[in-house]
Amino acid sequence: MSKKTALITGVTGQDGSYLTELLLSKGYEVHGILRRASTFNTSRIDGIRKDTIYGNPPNEGNPFFLHYGDLGDASNLARLIGRIQPDEIYNLAAQSHVRVSFDIPEYTTDITATGTIRLLEAIREVGIKPRFYQASSSEMYGLVQQIPQTETTPFYPRSPYGCAKVFSYWVTVNYRESYGLHASNGILFNHESPRRGESFVTRKITRGAAHIKLGLQDKLFLGNLDARRDWGYAKEYVDAMWRILQQPEPDDYVIATNETHTIRECLEVAFARVELDWKNHVEIDPRYYRPAEVDILIGDYSKAKRKLGWEPRTKFKELIELMVDADLKLIHDQLAGKVNRQD
Ligand code: NAP
Ligand code: F7E
What we know:
The chain is an alpha/beta fold. The chain folds into two domains: about 5-195 and about 230-255, NAD(P)-binding Rossmann-like Domain (Rossmann fold), CATH 3.40.50; about 200-230 and about 260-295 and about 315-335, UDP-galactose 4-epimerase, domain 1 (Alpha-Beta Complex). It has helices spanning about 15-25, 45-50, 75-85, 100-105, 105-125, 160-180, 200-215, 235-245, 265-275, 300-310, 315-335, and strands at about 5-10, 30-35, 65-70, 90, 130-135, 185-190, 190, 220, 230, 230-235, 250-255, 260, 280-285. The strands form four sheets. A seven-stranded parallel β-sheet has the order 3-2-1-4-5-6-11, with helices on both faces. Strands 7-10 form a two-stranded parallel sheet. The chain has a two-stranded parallel sheet with strand order 8-13. Helix 1 crosses helix 8 (about 235-245), helix 3 (about 75-85) packs parallel to helix 5 (about 105-125) and helix 9 crosses helix 11. It starts with a strand and ends in an 8-residue tail after the last helix. Bound molecules: NADP nicotinamide-adenine-dinucleotide phosphate and ligand F7E. Ligand F7E binds near residues 96, 139 and 204.
């Protein structure tokens, strides 16, 4: 069988980097779309990028390619899809920060919602039928109508980000039904890792605990400590994305752990790992409150288990501890002048 080709939007993000590694390990040729930035934004994929030449033809057998592009730029997306002719497309790019989406709602809608239809229209324009994965989110459940949430729980988004993801969810279903595209949604609950962006709460906490332990910081400022989230390990969640696209029929799946924990519990585990009491170091800063909050998320992944054979392995405590350990190591490496790479 010939080598499969995958195109990943959001390749420089947490999930994009893990998915790239997974697909390369399965023998795929992987193409990633990279935003142009004035500073380096490839730290998560530097370990695999090696000698890849941006946008150029095959480079001595290296199966990983980066191309400049943006979900706001439709003609470029069509050109790339036409050139690459991917078998699978994973749409992971988004303005993905919920709090920030209240500050830049129009931009969030343009990228996180309209960006998806730009990509789907580019596929139609080029006239190929790749399998399409949409990075849908538990934020679509927002003010939850059911506990735990399943594939049939009604959506009630609570942020511009959540609203944008609901649009992308439905447009993915619509292109499946209208044009017979193998288009699927993974409804992923929060998933974290040492590569998680530093402004998301788990990473902010694990990084903060590590800095405080090493005497580099004294206080950690946070918002609502009572919110509950279903947190899993990103490395395992990208495997679910791949499994979704290997199914004979397109469909939508909840990917979660079926456990929920508060931000307070996250603080307890992280600070216990560095033998400190979080209450001595955490202060509440109302700037981190959201105009509307999502109070509780907990996902029932039984459909994914049944149909994809997928199950989460790394649970909450182990996950937070491995993130604290990775942050301690990262800081030590940075202090020692080693490369700033997030493993
Ligand atoms: P992330 O780390 O924030 O990565 C987002 C990626 O999108 C980055 O590569 C970013 O590029 C890229 N991007 C942002 N704006 C773009 C634009 N205008 N054009 C092209 N690329 C753009 O997010 P993640 O945690 O890996 O999540 C991946 C996807 O899953 C996102 O769609 C997110 O909304 C969704 N999701 C995440 C979770 C979660 O818990 N992590 C749960 C459910 C769904 P830069 O590196 O240049 O910023
Ligand atoms: O917030 C509370 C905050 O920003 C989690 C994205 O990947 O997952 C993520 O969205 C909770 C919220 O993630 C701070 O109010 C308290 O209740 O880590 P977060 P999120 O909003 O759940 C979903 C599934 C996605 O799809 C998104 O792309 O933590 N919280 N204090 C705080 N949150 C942040 N960020 N910073 C604080 O200081």
